[in-house]
Structure formats: C-alpha cells, structure tokens
Design brief:
Strand content: 15-25%
Oligomer: single chain
Radius of gyration: 18 Å
Number of strands: 7
Largest sheet: 7 strands, mixed
Structural class: alpha/beta
Shape: globular
Length: about 260
C-alpha cells in the first residue's frame, strides 16, 4: 500500500475542509490545545516540524508567533499552496518547505525539533506505527507531539445517526479513492498504545467536533456557530465525548532522558 498523495484533489480539500464550519471548529479547538502546549514548552523560538502540513494553516500561525517552522508534505501541489500562503502572510523567511513523506523528513533535518505537528495524516498512511517511530527519532528529548487523527468511533456514530445500517454492517469500506474520506480511520485505543509503546507520555486528549457533525439541522452549524463552539469547548475534553469526536487530538511529550 502507498500513502495518500493529495495532488489530485488539493482544491477540493481546501474548499471542503477549511472553507466550512468543520474546518473553522477544528482549528478553534486545536488552537486551544496548542496554546496550552506552547505555554508548557521553553519560552523561546522553537524548532517546529509540521509533518504532512498541507496548505500550512497551522504552520503559518506558528511562524507568526516567532517560531522556526519546517513543513513537509508528500503533495507538491499542497506544498506550493503553503509556500504562496507563507509569502502572503509575510512569514516565508522563517519557514522551510520540503517535498517528502513524513517518515522521510529525517533526511532533511540538521537537528532535532522541539515540537511536531502531525494533524489529519495518520489516517492516510499505510504503516502508522512506522511513521510515529520516525517522528519520535527527530524529536528532541523533552519535546512535544501534537497528533490529530480521524476517529473510527466517530465514523461509526456518524453513519449510525444517518441510518446507514447496511454500510456499518459491511465494515464501512472506502468506496472511492478520490474522496476526502480517509483511507484508514484509527481506533483511539490503538493510537494511544502505539504512542506509549514507542515511549511518549500522553499529556492530553481532546475530541474534535464532538457535536457538530451529528446535528440533525445542519444550518445550525453555521447559524449558531458561536454557541456550538462554546458547548464543544465545554465537553470536548471529557468522556464519553472525547471518544465520539470525528477527530481526536492527542498531546504527548518525549521524556527528557530519552535520546
């Protein structure tokens, strides 16, 4: 199996993810966690790796805060979009762009990084444990990981709420390659176990879109976004809502004594 390359659907990805309340809510909740994570890291310009960073929305915001950001992506089209966006936001001087898969980025780094962003990528790779191990190797001792992945529990709940009983009974197979539906939805318990087996200490878990996608009246996602965001924020870091998020955001640290 090969990891997914988004060259063929980059425009569709940008429009359907970041141009909707799905993307707005995802970024809002993610940055609540990232702000807290950054407060716990050394208060200096950090070396940040955005692995599979796509169009660079999160990476650019990190660069705007004064950090040195390396963004790698398997898609040359996504990388071009990220470079253009960095220029438009006047942060291209503090960013570096590498055309490669996340698991190969070690070949392009001169020194370990302090923070790794790995968002909405794990569900597209064929060997998730190998990728997580590769990222561990380029992270400095005491460094942090911000991992967001597509939650298999959320996919199941979404289809059940929609009444797609036969599809669930079939095991929810992916039908078309060119869709934005991830190739490999991840079981949260598997991801937590993989991280801990490698050596990471998990410091936080957050459900992302724990209510948004399940609303019966879809117009309320847009019309009452502020109220929805407040309620998502209130419940997204407690069970059972964490495990029902369409995505789960995990923060983890590499112990200081780990080489």
């Amino acid at each position: 199996m090969q990891d997914r390359n988004f060259d063929d659907i980059a425009e569709k990805f940008a429009r359907n993810i970041y141009g909707t309340t799905k993307g707005q809510l995802r970024q809002a909740i993610l940055w609540q966690d990232l702000d807290q994570l950054l407060d716990a890291l050394p208060q200096r310009p950090l070396r940040v790796l955005d692995a599979g960073g796509g169009e660079g929305q999160t990476a650019i915001r990190m660069a705007q805060r004064g950090h040195q950001v390396t963004l790698c992506d398997l898609s040359s089209e996504m990388l071009t979009r990220a470079q253009l966006a960095s220029q438009q936001n006047a942060v291209s001087d503090t960013m570096r762009f590498i055309h490669c898969a996340a698991q190969d980025v070690w070949q392009h780094l001169e020194s370990p990084v302090d923070l790794i962003l790995f968002h909405a990528v794990l569900e597209w790779v064929s060997d998730p444990q190998a990728v997580l191990k590769a990222l561990w190797e380029v992270l400095a001792p005491g460094g942090a990981l911000s991992l967001m992945f597509y939650n298999a529990n959320g996919l199941l709940m979404h289809n059940m709420v929609a009444g797609n009983f036969a599809y669930v009974q079939q095991g929810m197979p992916k039908r078309k390659r060119r869709t934005l539906s991830p190739d490999h939805p991840r079981n949260p318990d598997d991801v937590y176990r993989w991280l801990e087996q490698i050596g990471w200490t998990i410091t936080g878990k957050t459900g992302v879109r724990v209510f948004h996608d399940y609303l019966r009246e879809k117009h309320r996602q847009r019309d009452e976004f502020d109220v929805l965001l407040e309620l998502e924020t209130r419940y997204c870091r407690q069970e059972p809502y964490i495990s029902l998020g369409r995505y789960i955001h995990v923060t983890a640290r590499k112990p200081e004594n780990q080489g």
